[in-house]
Amino acid sequence: MGAFAFGKPFLTSAHGHPTVPLLGELPLATAALFDLGVFITVVGATLLMLSMLGAASRPPPRPLRGVP
Predict the structure, then answer these.
(1) For residues 10 and 4, is the Cβ–Cβ distance under 8 A?
(2) pTM
(3) CA-CA distance, 56 to 52, in Å (whole number)?
(4) DSSP label at 27?
(5) Which of 3, 5, 9, 22 is surrounded by the fewest CB atoms within 10 Å?
């Protein structure tokens, strides 16, 4: 939708070469934002899956003695 705002065709990617401290000039495209979102989603889903598997492998807690 951002391309439409600038009068460009659908799926047009913007690119530039910003200067980053300690790294210098880096090539950067708007497609990198999509790639970063996919990466974060995959890592988050993997960590959630591992967390759920870890919780499922624990034995259930024992009831306290003397408590009805």
Answers:
(1) yes
(2) 0.62
(3) 6
(4) -
(5) 22
Taking only the tens of pLDDT, the chain with its 68 residues reads: 777 788 888 888 888 998 989 989 988 888 888 899 999 999 999 999 999 998 888 887 887 777 66
Using alpha carbons, select from 25, 6, 22, 23 the residue that is nearest to residue 14.
6
C-alpha torsion sign, points 19, 22, 24, 26: negative
**How many residues make up the chain in this entry?**
68
Cβ contact 18:28 at 8 Å: yes
- Residue 18 backbone zone (phi > 0: left; psi -120 to 50: alpha; other: beta): beta
Q: What is the DSSP letter of 8?
A: P
